[in-house]
Write a structure and sequence with these properties.
Elements (H helix, E strand, L loop, with lengths): L1 H22 L5 H6 L6 H12 L2 H14 L2 H24 L9 H9 L7 H33 L3 H17 L2 H29 L3 H10 L25 H16 L2 H7 L5 H32 L12 H9 L2 H38 L7 H22 L7 H25 L5 H20 L5 H19 L5 H8 L5 H11 L11 H11 L7
Membrane topology: Multi-pass membrane protein
Catalytic activity: L-proline(in) + Na(+)(in) = L-proline(out) + Na(+)(out)
Pfam families: SSF (PF00474)
Amino acid sequence: MSWYLVIFILYFAFIAWACLRSLRNVESMSDFTTGGHRMGLWIGVGTSAATWLSVASVMGVPGYLYSTGVAAIIGWVAGWFFATALIPLVAYKIRRPRVPARTFPEFVQMRYEPKQRRSNIRVLVAALMVVGYFIFVHLQVVGFGIVVSTITGVDYRIAIFGFLAFLLFTSLGGFWSVAVTDTVNTVLILGGVILGAITVLNAAGGWENIMTTLETTTAPVVEGGEELPAGVMLTPLGTFSLGALMAIFLSNALGAAIAPHWVGRMLAPKNAKTAVMQMMISLGVLILIFVPLIIIGLGAKTLVPSLPEGQSTDYILPFVIESYTHPLIGALTLIALAAAAVSTANSMLLHCGTSLYYDILQTLRPEHRPDEVTSRRRLRWVVLGLGVVAVLSAINPPVLLAMGFTYVYGGFGAVFFFVVFLGLYWKRMNRAGAYANIILGAGTYAVAEAVGAPSPFLIAFITALVGVLVAVKLTPAPPAEAVEPYFQEEVSTDTAQIIAQVRGDAAPTAGAASDDDEGRARRVTSGGGPAA
């Protein structure tokens, strides 16, 4: 227990230091939401990889590998990696404007309703984000509580309130606090899962013995449950039907690729080239992390044939770590799991709070928009309140963390896929098409899930596509101000003024950055700020 306490204290001390340091660099709303659009490559790699790695990946995926075998690699790992391969296509275009949006809903307004002072589509998008990201934060809290309670013996309810301190320290400092802690979290996760995989591999008698076990085992996932068919753990479908597995793959692949937090991450780098490169390098880092996670998930079946009655597969990784590792290695792996929860939850909480305050409340009342200092203070209070509610909601947790992420990613994909990809790569995509994607995608996906349709995401995706094409065909082309920032190197004076109006900046000349962004750039050039 002493190792766990020492490691936790050191980790929390770092979190507090990073938050206090970041607070000194937050001088504007752009700083708080996107780091002033000046994030460097390696900080970008660190925060991208850490945000990618949630409890759904480091705990949920090993749990599904333990219960269904290699099929989990197809449904979740392959799906998420396919999404990551698509993200550079978004990054190249979304960061192209010299003055980019601060948030995903602001991007949607710029692309589809740039001339509207009160943008209904921005409010609608932000409301959907608040729901989705609150669920994401909730799941991270649950994952953290499972890890700490399983390995340390601390009551789950106490553990999740401890998580609140981590969550708020990293989130209240804004983007730079999140990005800096995320970079360290990536290193911790990489080291922790490698140590955990080596331990599992040795304890299970090597990879060959693991494969032999998977070929022959019939042990139920949970004691007293139904026995597995021999060899099912090594079949491509595992315990899933083909339709169910493909639905999971498509939800993860197409939903994660345009998830608003990824689009938001691509707004932070200092230029489009950096945005693309950070995702390409992050993909390599993630491969180094997922190979150990696959070893842990499959090897756990050799070490623990069946989980104790009453436990879900989300518990398998901490259960194995507790039973088979040295306390020091266990403590380091525990921190890796906690870091995965913190690194995703702080980002999601920041998006949730920003959407609620900046994109909904301020959009609905533009005439009452306060000054920057007041806005940042109020936004921090919103983040604080959402964090407390997320922890309270996790007192009685659900099970199957990875599936919770799949549901939300499926919803995001159904609602935003054409809004993002067609908006960035098809000039004719217009406001009517965007509304068709959002309304038809959300409605169809919700109904399909409610009635238990075999592939809710695919049904919603196809319905939304048809609706988008019909809406675009029957309505006028978008105005030049909606298209120029993403399809031309320079924008007209009118477009520059429209962008400034949407962002609440002083109107710049055509093609120029805002005063806020120029000030940030001067500080970076002179050596100030956290981005190198």
